[in-house]
Amino acid sequence: MTRLFLVILIAALNACSTEQVKTDYASSYEPPVFLDQTPRTTAKHQAKTHSLLELKNDGDANQLSQQEKLLPRISRYIKQGVASWYGPGFHGRKTATGEIFDMYAMTAAHKTLPIPSYAQVTNLENNRSIIVRINDRGPFVRNREMDLSYGAAKILDMAQDGTGKIEIKTLSPSQALPQLQQIAASQEQEVYIQVGSFGSVKKAIKLKDKIAESNLPEPDIRSSTYKKSTLYKVQLGPIDSTAAANKLNEQLAEIGITDTQFVTESKQSQARVL
Q1: In the predicted model, what is the mean pLDDT of residues 209-234?
Q2: Which residues lie across from 81 on neighbouring strands?
Q3: CATH number attached to the domain at 189-267
Q4: What pTM value is reported for the model?
């Protein structure tokens, strides 16, 4: 009788343990596609801690196509919430992709969206929209959906208040490019493929020479300076079509360069430093 009681007791304990594991898993699961229109209370901009994690570049030439395969899952991602911005304290530091953060570039940090990926961000208070590239992790502040670069927040007219109510809609690179070109044209700018950004001009020149030696178009090097910190950005372009962008990305992948991004720059020749 005692043995039978022990068997029943052990079985009951095992069942409780299994149920606890299932409950914990379910409570931590967040579906990748959702729409949240719950109002949130805005607050003034606060200091944030961003990821400085470096991701290893394995030279995978299929990175772009792999990202496109995610689209059935992420292309329906539309979420509303509060965005803040970050800038001077992180300018020149590494983002979660390993690239250098430029507070004036159209980039953003998000907790879960793929890195790198693109999103259309709309300020719901004035209906201004921009395209940003997700290249960092954050914000690590409660009730914040996204941290925009200072430059992105300024265009959305959020820089002064520090926060704003936004809507995030994910885009594939092929979806993002035409919109970026349209926005750039309205601002007398053009779209380029950026292949690297460095705090050292020597590193920028080394990458430029590597690309030029591979029978590819010679890149430009442009600078972005804030206080005593100068970033040197290696760029190819301007890009006039999606087909041209795909071909150029394929050629870059053949020489091991897969972490590229679309950026907008002024048409003025004096913007080029090398």
Answers
A1: 89
A2: 166
A3: 3.30.70.1070
A4: 0.67
